[in-house]
Amino acid sequence: MRVDQQLRLDEQLLLFMDQLEALEEKRHKLNSLIEEGWFSIAKARYSMGNKQVSSLQYASEMEPLVYIETSMLEDGTAEFKCERKENKTEELKSNTIEDIGAKETVSGLRRRINTIQKGVKEEDQETDPQGKTKAESGESTPEHRDPLKWFGILVPQNLKQAQSAFKEVITLSAEIASLQSAIIAIRKEMQGQMKEKQQKTEKTQPEMENE
Amino acid sequence: MPGRGKLIAVIGDEDTCTGFLLGGIGELNKNRKPNFLVVEKDTSIAEIEETFKSFLARSDIGIILINQFIAEMIRHAIDAHMESIPAVLEIPSKEHPYDASKDSILRRAKGMFSAEDFR
After folding, report:
1. What top-level branch of life does the organism fall under (chain B) (predicted)?
2. B5-109: which CATH architecture?
3. Distances in Å between the alpha carbon of A61 and those of A53, A83, A122, A141?
């Protein structure tokens, strides 16, 4: 019985060490990626101007593009998974392009007539207060949602590099958060088992002394 | 919005916040409350602590990223947080490289082998 417990404790200790090693490795990667991101931001600032890429340029409306899915496992550890909304915005982009193309081919009319028709349509939409236009304008376009556009339309390549570095950092931080939670949980379990083991040895020691 | 995942919050210097916002974590909710705090020279410790506690209290936040030098200012508040969600991650800043010996989580893990555990 005691041997079993000791073996389990040993296994947990090894797992704990492995997790610590994995955490250190991921931490190292995270730190170098953040540094890479800062360096790219600094380079972008150098080419755009000293006052550029600052907190003053943040948009007044922000919508998150990344979410974290959290789940609690049976052993008390929390798991974090990173989910990006990017695919949806890309779909939206392609849809809008397709829509424009389809309209032009179906109508088959000259530009002049087309514009007159469009004008009539626009008037109709304006008169209808609860029409689709209002609902559509409420939703931000994919272009507006990309934080890169806060800093200008034609931003330097460095800023794009910074963005991709920080995207990786975000994914990595979710992995690190899961690892940290697992480490804390295993530590708690091991502490409990060590105390149990100690109590047992304390009990057996007086018996040995009496003999 | 029901059913969606949780957010990542950031407390850091300007470049750290800018980087993470570029990554797409930024949100301004209905009450115009952001999920980030740009710490400048004149930002008080009380303000940082208050923001950190407000992030802990928010149910829509899953991870809080904080620059380690800022975490040092409110260490007692970070050490007092024992729940696994939201997770607190200490990250380096431009002037202060990451020091594992200061990290709350690693210090807790290190405590595993301290004399206290063998008492």
Report:
1. Eukaryota
2. 3-Layer(aba) Sandwich (3.40)
3. 17, 21, 27, 12
